[in-house]
Amino acid sequence: RSLLVLNGPNLNLLGTREPATYGHETLADIETLCQRTAAEHDLAVEFRQTNHEGELIDWIHQARGRHAGILINPAAWTHTSVAIRDALAAVELPVIEVHLSNVHKREAFRHHSFVSPVAIGVLAGFGSNGYRLAIEHFAHLLKA
Ligand code: DQA
């Protein structure tokens, strides 16, 4: 069984991007953490990042029938994209939304998420550990 881990815009810059907010880990470090956590539960992970909204939507469509769940950090599109929310709703796969930072203690424009209503739950503020916790929860769900 396989999980799709999707990362939105600017997350390719992790490590150097606003380290006070996002920490010093790179996206490659987070991928390693995801692969390791998934492997502990006999799950595979396909890990992707894009700065192009349409590409992310295509990947969500293609997940149907190929993946057991989607972990998504939609980054800035969290707060702007009805299209990503609709794509996630369309494929009818379990979704967990993850943010490195606690968006609720940041600017007001980060307090609203278009994605949360189609997610099982949201992890925000736990840094890369949020990705690990989300994968643990998928493992728990898929065992049941
Ligand atoms: C983010 C939070 C978003 O508000 C922001 O636009 C990001 C990253 C996070 O992981 O904390 O790019 O999703």
Automatic annotation (TrEMBL):
Keywords: Amino-acid biosynthesis, Aromatic amino acid biosynthesis, Lyase. One of its GO terms (biological process) is quinate catabolic process. It catalyses: 3-dehydroquinate = 3-dehydroshikimate + H2O. The active site is at Y22, H99. Substrate binds at N73, H79, D86, L100, S101, R110. Belongs to the type-II 3-dehydroquinase family. This is 3-dehydroquinate dehydratase. The gene is aroQ.
